[in-house]
Design a protein that fits this description.
single chain; 133 residues; mainly alpha; Four Helix Bundle (Hemerythrin (Met), subunit A); 0% strand; extended
Length: 133
């Protein structure tokens, strides 16, 4: 079913109303999942019980660190999803923020929050790599 939908989306005119609706629904679904997971992780983080065994303390600290990293990752993801939804509303979704060219449906199907074309993203990564040398 998803493969048939993806093929239909690929064959439509670029960023047609149908494509924008597809990505809007997909991003809203991703947002709901991310918010639910964020609530779950925050609840788990708040439910830490004190203990006296050094091994339990170390295990709890590791779980706490994992949960904090998860919160950071989910917060970034939620921000990207919200930005993509805002771009859909402005009808700017699917176009590179650097070059203005089409990002491409295949790339958006893999990464619906993509903001740059493949070429622009590769150039950014290359530039960042050069700065770190």
């Amino acid at each position: 079913m998803a493969k048939a939908m993806n093929e239909k989306i690929l064959k439509s005119e670029y960023m047609s109303s149908e494509q924008l609706e597809y990505f809007k629904n997909r991003l809203n679904n991703d947002l709901a999942i991310a918010l639910k997971e964020l609530d779950r992780v925050r609840a788990e983080l708040a439910d830490t019980r004190p203990c006296s065994d050094i091994c339990d303390i170390a295990a709890n600290e590791e779980i706490r660190n994992i949960n904090l990293r998860s919160i950071d990752r989910l917060t970034v993801m939620i921000h990207k999803i919200e930005k993509a939804l805002d771009n859909i509303q402005k009808r700017e979704y699917g176009y590179c923020t650097i070059t203005g060219e089409e990002i491409g449906i295949p790339r958006l199907l893999v990464t619906p929050t993509a903001e740059m074309s493949k070429a622009a993203k590769e150039m950014e990564e290359y530039t960042n790599e050069e700065k770190h040398r």
